[in-house]
Amino acid sequence: MIGNIVGDSTEARDEMLGTELVERLMEIISGASAKLNVLQVACWVISNLLKGKPYPSFERVKGLVEHMGSLLFVANDGVISDTLWGLSHFTDEPKEAIKLLRKNVSLAKVVQLMRHENLLIKKPALRIVGNVCVGDEGDVEDAIKNGCLSELVIILNTCEQRDVLKEACWVLSNIAVSSESQVEQLLSSKAIKALVSLAFRKPDLHVFFIRYHID
Question: What's this model's pTM, rounded to 2 decimal places?
Answer without folding.
Answer: 0.92
